[in-house]
Amino acid sequence: MTETVIIFAGMPLAAYVIGATPFGLLMGKLKGVDIRSLGSGNVGATNVGRVLGARWGYLCFLLDVAKGFVPVLLAGFYIRSADGLIPPADRQAAWLIVAIAAILGHVLPFWLGFKGGKGVATGLGAVCGVWPYLTQAGLAALAIWIIVTLLSRYVSLGSIVAAAAFPVMFLVLNLIRLGDWQQVLRLWPMGVFAIVLPAVVIVRHRSNIRRLLAGTENKIGRRRAEESQISASAQ
User: Fold this and answer.
1) CA-based angle 70:47:13, to the nearest 5?
2) Is residue 128 a contact partner of residue 197, using CB atoms and an 8 Å limit?
3) How far apart are CA 215 and CA 93, in angstroms?
4) For 138-192, what is each residue's pLDDT tens digit?
5) pLDDT confidence tier of residue 219, bands split at 50, 70 and 90
6) CB burial string 111-147: b at 16+ within 10 A, e below
7) Mean pLDDT, the chain, integer
8) Residue 71: CB partners within 8 Å, gap ≥ 6?
9) Nearest by Cα to 186 from 77, 82, 76, 89
10) CB under 8 A, 24+ apart: contacts of 80-87
């Protein structure tokens, strides 16, 4: 009973609280501004980089990744099988609940009235924490995000394409690693997660999709009015 409470209540609650830590907002406060009132109003790394500068954006991205990665990885040491075999479905579900809780913490943080970021960075950290079953797919999605973003100069497009590729990467890479369809099918809870999470990420980017289609989405490197606004606010 105690173990069940720890796995299905204690760990997810801790992951949610960690995921809800608003690093973007805290960085803005250090610079004397409220990040929610500038740029897109989002507390995620993209808006932090746009408003505060690239260094702050990169730092926010890494911290947002970490708050997904750390609680999920630690939970895995407790939840997964010590013998290295594929965990049973209920253990997989418990592990994924921790990942979902960390992501929900970022997307719906209680500190900010349940208005947070889009969950891309924290979602990346969370999936990489499910070692090794989702880690390789998560890193592959990261590589796709980097390539698409650099080529298109649209962060949102990179996020959308990477999210869409993630379920395919999960299937292909686990098939290569396990070498057996029957073994891959035993990962069905993670397979469901690998489909649902990208769908949520894409839905969270629906406003970006509309701007991409309209040709009004912001590109990396474009001078923004917020840069002047942040300078004026900091003086």
Assistant:
1) 30
2) no
3) 40
4) 999 999 999 999 999 999 999 999 999 999 999 999 999 999 999 999 999 999 9
5) confident
6) eeeeebbbbbbbbbbbbbbbbebbbbbbebbbebbee
7) 90
8) 11, 14, 15, 18, 19, 98, 102, 129
9) 89
10) 86/133, 86/183, 86/186, 86/187
